[in-house]
Design brief:
Distance between the termini: 74 Å
Number of strands: 0
Largest sheet: none
Number of domains: 1
CATH superfamily: Transmembrane di-heme cytochromes, Chain C
CATH topology: Fumarate Reductase Cytochrome B subunit
Number of helices: 9
């Protein structure tokens, strides 16, 4: 069971994540979108969307720092474990609360606004369920195990995840983690596996080219010379003398 949950399942999820995006880009480029529902309702969307997205970006940044960067690296640059724990928990709780608030507004909007609810597909419902569970279990770990308790996930969860990308994976490290951490990771792995087949693909379609493209220059047209014909063609628009087209 340890090998199945913490070795096989992660590799299946990573494979589905990678190949699924390649498949969808090749066969469903026109469906590579968020399927925006802003036309149906915009007031709640303007409030919930920034809270959710900026909060989630901060949460992901904390995960990168806590999981991908070994504790020995932060210690080498002079960051003590106490200082790291204080900053990690403080930012984790704050960004988690912002993310939960934004998600709650978006879910309320999707449930109560009839047009938005009708535009919600089964995959959307699965995505929101997994996303909500991942965020709530993450908050449970941050507040329960890290803030109230003294569990150090950098000694088990982080090395386990990094070992998946080495020639010597260590699934037993994750098997020794608390149940809440195991549940959180299983939900996140499931979310990664179904990611390419949901609207979450829009994460990889940010309009970055907009930042570097040249300005659009608008120029007025000179008055077109008047036609010598007595009657204008049917597809030409007649205009009074001296008027701009």
């Amino acid at each position: 069971m340890t090998t199945l949950l913490w070795l096989t399942v992660p590799y299946v999820a990573f494979t589905s994540f990678l190949l699924g995006h390649l498949w969808r880009y090749r066969h469903d480029q026109f469906g590579w979108t968020t399927r925006s529902s802003q036309l149906y309702e915009s007031r709640l969307l303007r409030l919930g969307s920034p809270l959710f997205h900026f909060g989630l970006l901060t949460v992901l940044g904390g995960h990168v720092l806590g999981i991908l960067i070994p504790a020995s690296w932060t210690a080498a640059v002079g960051v003590s474990e106490t200082a790291y724990h204080l900053v990690s928990v403080s930012l984790g709780v704050l960004s988690g609360l912002v993310t939960v608030a934004g998600l709650a507004i978006l879910l309320y909007r999707r449930i109560t606004v009839v047009a938005v609810r009708k535009a919600t597909t089964r995959l959307d419902k699965l995505m929101y369920t997994l996303l909500s569970t991942a965020i709530l279990t993450g908050m449970l770990n941050t507040v329960g195990a890290n803030l109230i308790g003294d569990y150090n996930y950098r000694e088990t969860v982080s090395p386990w995840f990094r070992s998946l990308f080495s020639i010597a994976p260590q699934p037993e490290l994750m098997a020794s983690a608390p149940l809440s951490f195991q549940l959180h990771n299983l939900v996140v792995l499931t979310l990664l596996g179904v990611w390419p087949y949901t609207r979450l693909v829009h994460v990889f379609s940010a309009p970055l080219g907009y930042l570097t493209r040249p300005y659009v220059v608008y120029r007025s047209r000179d008055p077109a010379p008047r036609s010598t014909r007595r009657y204008a063609r049917a597809w030409e628009v007649s205009a009074p003398p001296g008027a701009r087209r």
